[in-house]
Design brief:
alpha/beta; Rossmann fold
């Protein structure tokens, strides 16, 4: 394989697996930061035992968070979602809904909601997809004290992915990789969910 062909192949591998070059760099940078405890910590055992609902958070509440909410519900776990910059009342992204349907989930009834209109419950475990989202939510006065904890969903994936890049506007290959990571994270998280949440 010549150099140009190798470079082209490598580009598409990075694009399909991580969502692009910048996303690849962020993924590895945040992985190192998390490994060396430079990111906010996740919930401890006591906080996990107190949780009553999983709440998924992304930017627009049209791709990652509605998929996470739907998958959790399919697993029998009480769940909800919202977006930090969502326009309330919008539908899920068309590509997200189409690919979710191929994976056995229906997002047709999803309606976006902005954080300012979201009703938090006692015992919510807030799950974000990016460290920046987590840090924003942990700012003073953003979340009520009743929230059990905040964590990065991708920490539960093997290998760990503290940063799960937004698939909006990207190809089907990355959408599926992104959704794979959400599924893998929830499979590992589910056993830690109190039995009262699982039907």
């Amino acid at each position: 394989m010549n150099a140009s062909k190798y470079t082209e192949t490598r580009f598409y591998q990075i694009h399909d697996k991580y969502g692009g070059k910048r996303a690849w760099l962020r993924t590895h940078a945040y992985h190192l930061m998390d490994r060396f405890c430079l990111l906010p910590s996740g919930p401890n055992k006591t906080q996990l035992a107190e949780l009553k609902r999983l709440v998924f958070v992304c930017q627009g509440n049209i791709c990652r968070s509605p998929y996470g909410e739907a998958r959790a519900r399919q697993l029998g776990i009480s769940s909800a979602s919202f977006g930090l910059n969502a326009d309330t009342g919008k539908r899920a992204n068309h590509s997200a809904a189409r690919i979710a349907k191929q994976r056995g989930l229906i997002l047709d009834d999803h309606s976006t909601i902005h954080i300012s209109q979201f009703l938090f419950n006692t015992g919510d475990l807030i799950l974000t997809f990016e460290p920046q989202q987590m840090e924003e939510l942990l700012s003073p006065g953003v979340l009520p004290e009743s929230v059990a904890a905040v964590d990065l969903l991708g920490r539960w994936c093997i290998p760990s992915f503290p940063y799960i890049h937004d698939p909006y506007g990207l190809n089907d290959a990355y959408f599926n990789i992104c959704f794979d990571r959400i599924d893998q994270s929830l499979v590992r998280l589910a056993p830690h969910v109190p039995s009262s949440l699982v039907t």
